[in-house]
Amino acid sequence: MTVVVGYLSTPEGREALGTAVDEAISRRSELLVVVSDKDGRSLPEQVEERLADIARITAPLDEAGIPHQVVTGTGEVAEDLVATAETHGAGLIVIGLRRRSPVGKLILGSNAQRILLDAPCPVLAVKPHRP
């Protein structure tokens, strides 16, 4: 069983990754980190920054001996996560959510909503810890 996590270089993305690592360890599963190019980055310096960020997150996984793969998405975050989960027979998807205002809580982000509705497995949504 595989654990799939959507990763962006944000507090929400880092919290999702940390939780997914814990889940993969407890389930003795492979971790698939889906990195979607949300902003459609194509400038060389942005590509370099993205590759450096991926290296920063995978180095500790390598050192800890956690089996993992990084999957580069198309930029459609929800589609990337759902498709990866389907392709790899995932047992869990982990996503990070932003904190919202009381009014914002009435509306879930469109990507999160699409993932929850279309996922072929359970979805664990986490928020970053308050400082």
UniProtKB/TrEMBL annotation:
<dbReference type="InterPro" id="IPR014729">
    <property type="entry name" value="Rossmann-like_a/b/a_fold"/>
</dbReference>
<dbReference type="InterPro" id="IPR006016">
    <property type="entry name" value="UspA"/>
</dbReference>
<dbReference type="InterPro" id="IPR006015">
    <property type="entry name" value="Universal_stress_UspA"/>
</dbReference>
<dbReference type="Pfam" id="PF00582">
    <property type="entry name" value="Usp"/>
</dbReference>
<feature type="domain" description="UspA">
    <location>
        <begin position="2"/>
        <end position="127"/>
    </location>
</feature>
<protein>
    <submittedName>
        <fullName>Universal stress protein</fullName>
    </submittedName>
</protein>
<comment type="similarity">
    <text>Belongs to the universal stress protein A family.</text>
</comment>
